[in-house]
């Protein structure tokens, strides 16, 4: 069907953007206080200052009640701060009229934990829905839906209803729907927490593709550090409404500064023995040490010297990870034999890295 003069073209119907620039998101001293019927106050966000650069993927992580969901509702204008500013590409959206917020939301894609698909619509119909709201012409809609299905690897599932799709396929339909209107910002609110580990990785690979090929800024809200590890450039750790730690994924994973960040990192890396494992390891002879491994930790040199001096060295736990082109990890070793050589090993590594002895 040919387009008539009154039928909007894709260019007229959808916001156009560069494929190398996403939205810049900036929180400036944002606080949100809720009051209940008894006038009791709950601080959901407490003086949050945070910047997400265009094209970045940031993971916002925290336990239940940390303030993550409130933060994401601020970004798409569904909630407003009690105080502070929230800027999207330099424009403060706090106090913006609803008519302007609706226009702003057309540039923000959203994917959800429970997919939020229309059960009465096919996969193609779900993707087409926001294009209908944008008053795109029928031919252009069909072409865009096909493009999105191909992009998320579901070119053969367009006529399937949600009940005929797996969880991972449903989420990919959700991603395709969120991308259909050419947003420059994508919000993913616990988008993988309902999926098994293998399916989670499939969905995260699609999100990596979105960021890599389209340049969209992605804000990932999650309580799973493995998700942050897999996709994010930066990570903000939240606790009780505050951002308590922020940095590159490598910085936070390799050297977490707060207790909450250390707990999250431990769930993803599993490179130190837990209490049960440590108790078992301590039942054997020898001294146990957990050592931070970096490119200049000196572990292998110290081990070679200790072995030459009569120490026996056994690796009993550990792991090495590569993130953002840096390798790091932890190794737990048991040393026996010559006590002096063991002590010299310990003293030598204290000068070059972090080494802790595990004792009862």
UniProtKB/TrEMBL annotation:
The keyword Transcription regulation does not apply. The keyword DNA-binding does not apply. One of its GO terms (biological process) is amino acid transport. PROSITE patterns: ABC_TRANSPORTER_1, ABC_TRANSPORTER_2. GO terms for molecular function: ATP binding; ATP hydrolysis activity. Keywords: Amino-acid transport, ATP-binding, Cell membrane, Membrane, Nucleotide-binding, Translocase, Transport. InterPro entries: AAA+_ATPase (IPR003593), ABC_transporter-like_ATP-bd (IPR003439), ABC_transporter-like_CS (IPR017871), ACT-like_dom_sf (IPR045865), MetN_ABC (IPR041701), MetN_ABC_transporter-like (IPR050086), NIL_domain (IPR018449), P-loop_NTPase (IPR027417). Residues 25-265 form the ABC transporter domain. One of its GO terms (cellular component) is plasma membrane. Part of the ABC transporter FtsEX involved in cellular division. Has ATPase activity. Homodimer. Forms a membrane-associated complex with FtsX. Belongs to the ABC transporter superfamily. This is ABC transporter ATP-binding protein.
């Amino acid at each position: 069907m040919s387009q008539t003069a009154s039928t909007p073209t894709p260019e007229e119907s959808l916001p156009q953007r560069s494929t190398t620039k996403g939205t810049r998101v900036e929180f400036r001293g944002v606080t949100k206080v809720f009051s209940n019927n008894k006038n009791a106050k709950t601080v959901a966000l407490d003086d949050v200052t945070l910047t997400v650069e265009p094209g970045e993927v940031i993971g916002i992580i925290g336990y239940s009640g940390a303030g993550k969901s409130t933060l994401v509702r601020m970004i798409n204008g569904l909630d407003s701060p009690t105080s502070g500013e929230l800027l999207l590409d330099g424009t403060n959206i706090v106090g913006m009229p609803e008519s302007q917020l609706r226009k702003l939301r057309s540039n923000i894609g959203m994917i959800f934990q429970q997919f939020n698909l229309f059960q009465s619509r096919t996969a193609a119909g779900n993707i087409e829905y926001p294009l209908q709201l944008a008053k795109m012409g029928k031919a252009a809609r069909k072409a865009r839906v096909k493009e999105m299905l191909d992009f998320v690897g579901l070119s053969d599932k367009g006529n399937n209803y949600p009940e005929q799709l797996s969880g991972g396929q449903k989420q990919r339909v959700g991603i395709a729907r969120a991308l259909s209107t050419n947003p420059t910002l994508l919000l993913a609110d616990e988008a993988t927490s309902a999926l098994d580990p293998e399916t989670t990785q499939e969905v995260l690979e699609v999100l990596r593709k979105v960021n890599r090929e389209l340049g969209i800024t992605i804000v990932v809200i999650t309580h799973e550090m493995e998700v942050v590890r897999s996709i994010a450039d930066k990570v903000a750790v939240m606790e009780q409404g505050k951002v308590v730690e922020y940095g590159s994924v490598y910085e936070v994973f390799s050297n977490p500064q707060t207790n909450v960040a250390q707990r999250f990192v431990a769930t993803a890396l599993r490179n130190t023995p837990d209490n049960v494992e440590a108790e078992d390891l301590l039942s054997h002879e020898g001294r146990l040490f957990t050592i931070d491994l970096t490119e200049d930790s000196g572990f292998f040199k110290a081990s070679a010297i200790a072995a030459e001096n009569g120490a026996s060295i056994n690796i009993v736990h550990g792991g090495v990870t590569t993130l953002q082109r840096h390798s790091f990890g932890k190794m737990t070793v048991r040393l026996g034999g010559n006590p002096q050589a063991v002590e010299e090993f310990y003293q030598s590594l204290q000068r070059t890295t972090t080494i802790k002895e595990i004792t009862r």
